[in-house]
Design a protein that fits this description.
The complex is a heterodimer of chains A (248) and B (114).
Chain A lengths: L3 H13 L5 H11 L3 H14 L4 H13 L3 H13 L25 H8 L8 H4 L11 H6 E7 L5 E3 L7 H11 L2 H11 L5 E8 L3 E6 L5 E6 L5 H17 L3
Helix pairs in contact in A: 1-2, 2-3, 2-4, 3-4, 4-5, 5-11
Chain B lengths: L1 H11 L4 E8 L5 E6 L5 H23 L3 E8 L2 E8 L2 E7 L5 H15 L1
Antiparallel strand pairs in B: 1-2, 1-5, 3-4, 4-5
Helix pairs in contact in B: 1-3
Classes of the chains: A alpha+beta (248), B alpha+beta (114).
Chain lengths: 248, 114
């Protein structure tokens, strides 16, 4: 949570220099404090001056998620990704924070928890498993999305915002979905239906939703059984756009 | 089999559907079906059964429950599948087809098969 000092400093910076990019930091701080209206106003006004500022777009995406407006959220995430082809630097230079720092992410605690699992995962890359922010922001969507992850083409877990005590299930899911993307692509190709963009499987319990991500990886959501199937698709769209904006 | 014909006919009369098949889940062989000219029924059956099997494994890994309706969405069309015992009811439809209606119809017909 940003300190009141930070908010004061960013406010002063903006007052001194209206062209400053501090508007995005300030908007994010206000969003985290729950002042969505002021945060939105600030981000929108800032985007009028800096229309390709990724962090401001991600702030608006999270505000839209918090309001349950998934169409607007996925549109903002798409724009954020568009203006941020190499998301490796922070807000200060106008791009989305790296997934490894996840500067505007909502899950720093779970990210720390994932990193803390390094002992169980001996390689350096596993010790730094990045958190992607597909656990959506609002309390409502958190109740809907049971698990979310990005799995690579070999069935290995790439990223997830879930806590480490869920790691065994997440890894089992990542392994189990390996090849589903290839099969979906093969089916689409043979049937001349173009590229696939969503696969949803209803079950007696949680629904499973998958979408393709770069380099053969998959965005995977497990969604609670009470969630209507149309909403599952909308949640998948947001998670996919969000994972892409996070650099996956 | 008359029962299968009824199911296939109803699906083929759903707007946007251009292939409706009853497929063996275990080996991906067509049991019965109807497709528009130029559509390869054997390929649909094999691909759908394989995809369904894989997705079902993933769902089972997620929460251990049995899979139901599957929907694969592509640029130029969609593939839907729903199980009925050892069989799989499969449709291929245009992107503009009413997915909600198709889903309800397939689920109802799958129950009537079982």
């Amino acid at each position: 949570m940003p300190a009141a000092d930070d908010i004061r400093r960013w406010s002063n910076e903006l007052a001194t220099d209206p062209q400053s990019l501090a508007f995005a930091d300030l908007a994010e701080a206000l969003r985290r404090q729950g002042d969505l209206e002021t945060a939105e106003r600030l981000a929108v006004r800032g985007l009028e001056r800096h229309p390709t500022h990724g962090p401001a777009l991600s702030v608006l995406a999270r505000i839209a998620e918090a309001r349950g407006d998934l169409n607007a959220a996925s549109a903002y995430w798409e724009r954020a990704r568009l203006y941020n082809p190499t998301p490796t630097s922070g807000a200060a230079n106008g791009s989305i924070p790296s997934p490894r720092t996840n500067g505007y992410g909502d899950t720093p605690a779970s990210q720390r928890a994932l990193r803390a699992t390094g002992a169980a995962y001996p390689t350096a890359s596993y010790a730094a498993v990045p958190s992607f922010s597909a656990t959506l922001a609002s309390p409502v969507t958190r109740q809907e999305v049971v698990r979310s992850l990005v799995a690579d083409a070999d069935g290995l877990l790439l990223a997830s915002p879930q806590p480490s005590d869920d790691m065994a299930v997440l890894e089992a899911m990542a392994a189990a979905v390996a090849g589903v993307g290839d099969d979906a692509a093969r089916a689409m190709k043979h049937l001349n239906l173009g590229t696939w963009h969503a696969l949803v499987l209803e079950t007696g319990g949680d629904s499973l939703a998958l979408a393709p991500a770069p380099a053969g990886s998959l965005t995977v959501l497990s969604v609670a059984p009470h969630v209507p199937i149309g909403r599952v698709r909308a949640l998948l769209r947001v998670a996919t756009a969000r994972a892409a904006a996070d650099g996956f | 089999m008359a029962q299968y014909n009824v199911v296939i006919d109803e699906l083929m009369h759903t707007a946007g559907v251009h292939a409706a098949l009853i497929v063996s889940r275990t080996d991906g062989i067509v049991v019965d079906g109807n497709v528009h000219i130029g559509t390869d029924a054997d390929a649909i059956a094999a691909l759908a059964a394989r995809l369904y099997g894989r997705a079902a494994q993933a769902a089972t890994a997620a929460d251990g429950t049995s899979p139901g309706f599957l929907h694969l969405e592509g640029e130029r069309g969609r593939v839907c599948a729903v199980p009925s015992g050892d069989l799989l009811l499969v449709t291929v439809a245009e992107p503009w087809a009413n997915l909600g209606l198709l889903r309800l119809t397939m689920r109802r017909l799958a129950q009537s098969l079982g």
